[in-house]
């Protein structure tokens, strides 16, 4: 029962993040899109579903296109450069 609840909560988190990630302006690991991408990659492996990995990959592609003009810190930057 606890495992089922945990899985349901994680799925709700993943779905909510997927829906609202485009409303987030910050690209950082702690406060932005990089953290969401990391969660989605990990969640994809946990549930063995490619959808979340593909979605995170699309987010990463979008960030790489704009990474030259972004700050490069971990908290609020793009965490790439």
Description:
The protein is mainly alpha-helical. It has one domain (2-67). The protein is built from 3 helices and no strands. The chain has helices at residues 2-20, 33-47, 50-66. The longest helix is centred in the N-terminal third of the chain and has 19 residues, at 2-20. It is elongated, with a radius of gyration of 13 Å. The mean pLDDT is 87.
| Largest sheet report | none
Mean pLDDT: 87
Q: How many DSSP helices?
A: 3
Output the helix-strand order. Answer: HHH
Number of strands: 0
Q: Could you tell me the strand content as a percent range? A: under 5%
* Helix percent band: 55-70%
Rg for CA atoms:
13 Å
First CA to last CA: what distance? 43 Å
- Overall geometry comes to elongated
Any low-confidence stretches, pLDDT <50, length ≥5? Answer: none
Judged by helices, strands and strand pairing, the structural class is mainly alpha
């Amino acid at each position: 029962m606890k495992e089922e609840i945990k899985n349901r909560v994680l799925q709700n988190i993943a779905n909510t993040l997927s829906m609202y990630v485009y409303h987030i302006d910050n690209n950082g690991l702690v406060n932005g899109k990089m953290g969401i991408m990391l969660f989605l990659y990990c969640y994809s492996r946990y549930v063995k579903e490619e959808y979340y990995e593909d979605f995170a990959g699309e987010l990463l592609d979008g960030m790489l296109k704009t990474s030259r003009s972004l700050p490069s810190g971990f908290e609020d930057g793009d965490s790439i450069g």
